[in-house]
Every structure is written in C-alpha cells, then in structure tokens.
Write a structure and sequence with these properties.
The protein is mainly alpha-helical and 239 residues long. The chain is 67% helix and 2% strand. The chain has a single domain, classed as Rhomboid-like (Rhomboid-like fold), CATH 1.20.1540.10. The longest helix is centred in the last third of the chain and has 29 residues.
Length: 239
C-alpha cells in the first residue's frame, strides 16, 4: 500500500518458480495454434467438408499415396464443437506453460513432433485405412512436458488442480483405455504415444528439475488417491 492506495505487486521470479501463480499471458504461438484449429474446424463444419476430408485429414493410406502434408494439417481439424473446445482448453493451459518456460520454437517443435509421432503410432495400432483428426496427441506431448516443468502450476480451467496431477491422471486413464480396449472414435493409443514423446521435451526444458517435479507429481497422485479413498469410506458409513 502506498499513500493509502492499494498497489499491485508484480510477480517476482520466485513467485513464478513456486508454481502457484496463474499466469498464462506468454502464449503467442499457442494462441496461433488455437486460432488455426478454430478456422480449420469451422471450414470442416461449414461448407468445406469434402475438401477437408480429401486433402487435409490424415490416414496411413493417404500418406502412403503421397499426401505427406496431412500429418500436419489433420492436427487442426476437429470432429465437433466438444472436441474442439476440449482441445483448445488443454492446449491453452499446457501450451502456455511450455512456451513461457522455454520458447515458441520449442513449443511448436513439441506440438508437431508429438502430433505427427502419435499419428504414426496410431496408424501402426489401428491400421492404414483409419483416419485420425485433432490435436489431442500433440496436446498430450505438451501436457507431459508441462508436468515435468511446472507440476504445481494452477489454472482456473482445471479448477485450480495442479497441472502435473491433471496430466498424469489423463495419461493413466488413456493407458487403461488402451488396455481395456475402450470403444468409440477416440485414439487412446495416440494419446499415450503423444505423452511419452513429450517426456524428453520436459526433461530438456526443466533444467535438471524434472526428477524432482516427477516426484512432486507422483506425490500429488498419492494424495489424490488417498482423498478419494477417504471419501469412499466416509460415504459407506453415511449410507
């Protein structure tokens, strides 16, 4: 407070490092990726469905026939509004963390390497004829990197649950989805592959802190499981 007037304290380096600041302002390239996702998806939904499916959507068959650009373009196309909004939310949070702590170049590299790599794994798993769209695999790459960089980072979009815990829970869910062969039009194996691809990026960006941050994330998971267990036991006594 200065002269009786409240003042805002600019976040210090220590504030940023403690992981509890919610600052997602540095996301230039993340924002550009989001905008392209919106435009490509709108084009797919309204008037250009045939063009998008024939020229922008990825399949192993199309790649083998020479559509070498489709592993990139398909990342921006989304099936419906729920698919798009969910991916935008995750991309905005995890992408901003990676971009802030590294650079736009690293963020884009992780996004495209993870996205293309996850598609190729999906093709091996599901077959050449299966088409795959959306940025989910690429976003899982960013999620894994963010987990090893800022596991305690909070976001309103995730109801202030630490990002490390969010990333690990979604990874575990997708692993079980693959093992239990969940149905639907979701490429769970591509999500798992994207996450695993993201780990080396997180290790590189974390500047030696990745092992500690991984430990923090595992501890968060243990606390989460303990809370769920206590709630279940309490409900049994109440019923």
């Amino acid at each position: 407070m200065k002269n009786g007037v409240p003042t805002l304290k600019k976040p210090s380096k220590e504030d940023s490092q403690n992981g509890f600041m919610v600052d997602e302002s540095n996301m230039k390239w993340t924002s550009i990726l989001i905008i392209i996702c919106i435009l490509a998806s709108l084009g797919y939904w309204f008037g250009y469905e045939s063009f998008v499916e024939n020229h922008l959507v990825y399949s192993g068959t199309g790649l083998a026939q020479g559509a070498l650009w489709t592993p990139i373009t398909t990342l921006f196309v989304h099936f419906d509004l729920a698919h798009l909004v969910g991916n935008i939310a995750f991309l905005s949070v995890f992408g901003s963390v990676v971009e802030k702590e590294s650079s736009g170049k690293t963020t884009l590299t992780a996004f495209f390497v993870g996205g293309v790599g996850s598609l190729l794994v999906g093709t091996v798993y599901y077959g050449l004829s299966v088409t795959m769209i959306g940025a989910s695999g690429a976003i899982f790459t960013l999620a894994a990197a963010a987990m090893l960089i800022k596991p305690l980072k909070l976001s309103l979009l995730f109801f202030f649950i630490p990002l490390g815990l969010v990333a690990l829970l979604y990874f575990i869910f997708n692993v079980f989805a693959v093992l239990w062969e969940f149905g639907g039009n979701v490429g769970y194996i591509a999500h798992v592959a994207g996450f695993l691809i993201g780990l080396p990026f997180g290790i590189a960006v974390s500047e030696g802190e990745w092992l500690k941050n991984l430990g923090i994330t595992i501890l968060l998971l243990a606390v989460f499981v303990a809370i769920i267990y206590v709630i279940q036991i309490s409900l049994k006594f109440l019923v």
